[in-house]
């Protein structure tokens, strides 16, 4: 059962033992699993489970731009389509893409663009389709992370991977990787994404209230979590090739 019913939130977001409602320590991220090459009809793809979030990303391109007027003569374009399935949340979600989905698609585009060499692909488009099957807070960060992995799986030249996570504040304490309930009932939520080639934040949103010291500490917490997430992305990419190698070696013996 979800913890939020009819927008009534629990009064406390920490348990008696000092842990968060899902049993995590303040700076602990939720369990994350990632896999690449999961959609056979895509040029590249990835699947991610991040706590209760379940998200697919499929990449196509470089390919012809439709509608044609969006094409740019001097560089390629990146188009990201973030969608949440109607069954992905407890309340009914309207099937048509809403303003939130359009905003998140735009944010993810901005996060990913800096790592691509779009100038090498004039007149074409890279398209990234993201489907959130199950949502529980932090889907824009999880989607950015899985989309970067799908681009890498497609063999698209990239300056580096991109990783993302939200940090924030609940019941006066700083925390890492907010769940859905922490996002809704907490005091502050800061989704961040990093482009690893220059270690710059390609996303920093802020919703809520915290002072400057808390902001600096939160950003340091985010950096630690982003490093953990990068390692999981790299492991998922490598495991595709080690599996192919193992299969080949198995076939030869
Ligand atoms: P993010 O998923 O990036 O944290 P939001 O802050 O907008 O984005 O949403 C927080 C959470 O609220 C989502 O992860 C999802 O669990 C839930 N949510 C978002 N949109 C809806 C919706 N239309 N109906 C019900 N729950 C939603």
Walk me through this protein's architecture.
The chain has a single domain (32-241), classed as Ribosomal Protein S5, domain 2 (2-Layer Sandwich), CATH 3.30.230.70. 30% of the residues lie in helices and 28% in strands. The protein has four helices and ten strands, in the order E-E-E-E-H-E-H-E-E-H-E-E-E-H. A hairpin with a 2-residue loop joins strand 6 (162-170) and strand 7 (173-176). The chain is globular and about 55 Å long. The mean pLDDT is 94. Residues 89, 91, 93, 100, 135-140, 180, 183 line the site of adenosine-5'-diphosphate (ADP).
Task: Provide a compact summary of the structure.
This protein has 253 residues and is α+β, with helices and mostly antiparallel strands.
